[in-house]
Model the fold of this input.
Amino acid sequence: MNDWFDAEQRVERAQQLSESHRWEEALVEIEAALEINPHNPSWHAQHGALLDELGRTEEAVEAYQQSLVLEPGDRDVTVALGVGLAKLQRYSRALAVFDGLAKLDPEFETAYCHRVAIYTEIGRHDQAEEMFYLAQELDPRCPHCFFHIGASLATRGQSDRALYCWRRVLEIEPHYPGVRQSIAQAYRAQGKFDLARQYLLAELREDPGDPELLFDLGELAVDSGQADQAASRFVQIIELDPDNADAHFELGTILLSQDKPGEALEHFQAVLSLVPQPDLEDLNLRLGEALVLLGRYEEARSHLEEAVKQDEDSVEAVMLLGNCLLALDKPDEASDRYRRVLALSARNPYAHHHLAICFFKKGKFQAGLRHCLEAIESKPDYLLAFQKAILAHLHLGQFKDARVLIRRGQQIVPDSPVFRELSGQVWRFRVKHYVSKLLAPLKFLLRS
Done:
């Protein structure tokens, strides 16, 4: 008898602890009570709710199932079971649970509402809409239904209709969690950054310091070209959560764009230390880029080769690997990468220009000249390509062509000192070329 009384006392303490959100302590109490009396269905349901609060969904589902074995048909526990199965992405079983609820009680709006969410999640949008309209007949002011159907519409690219539904959510329930964030994402997709920011800030006021909201504000600032503001958001997230790998990556990317490769590298390395096998496709690419800018080419090479393995069609990764190999004085290997870039992007001026450099390193001025001219055709203000093409003409003794190219460059970039300097070099190359032609017979006589 004392054991039964002790169990009741423990359940009561569990409820008190739950009210204070002391979930772990409450769980200990309810599990002790269930050890004494494992046949109480409501205790199993409470056990499931505590496990849900702690994110232990798999165990929560088992607890709800045990509760229903002891007391079949409990509507609230059945709903909790269906929601848990959906969280575990066991969508067929979750749908079966809510289908069963609707058959038992066709007037139970919740059975339809949750199926709107599940059908949206699995991409069966026609059925999501069918459930939405059935739910509307029972409760036309259900904020959950409007929220979920809004997500379905947004997924299908119907952002205006989605926005209407999410604004209805706010009319019905002004403090509905996450709806302002969804509205902000829709406006961001439409390029309406100021409106998106307003809704994100309003959501942040509801939940100050939420890392996910701060992250969205950071990404929004990136989209709207406010790099410093974006960086401050990611710094704020890292201050709140030093182990946030995504924030470290985004901050590193911004620093890299601001020509701060050393600082960027620290954040990329932080990602590696936090997540040994990070699920960030661009991490090796950005690590390689930072290391190239720091002149650490051998280290950069391994990261860039990995980036190319991850995405063989990434023009940026292949191009950077080519630049790295060129810096390591491997023009043949670099040439292969630049040709790969041109196979992906035939008019890429940078690939043509760097391929030209590879040819020049091997003394193949005519081949290099051809690629320089291709680069200029694609990018008419490409000064480096102009400069190297003119020098190639001079090396080949094509002085008239060099002058034509100098005049063309001066028309495009009239204030550039590069063309004045090259114009002065034409005569030096002519003299050198003339002298070498005069000395050629003499060299032949000396050899014989």
Q: What stands out?
A: Residues 434-448 have pLDDT under 50 and may be disordered. The CA atoms of residues 282 and 307 lie 7 Å apart.
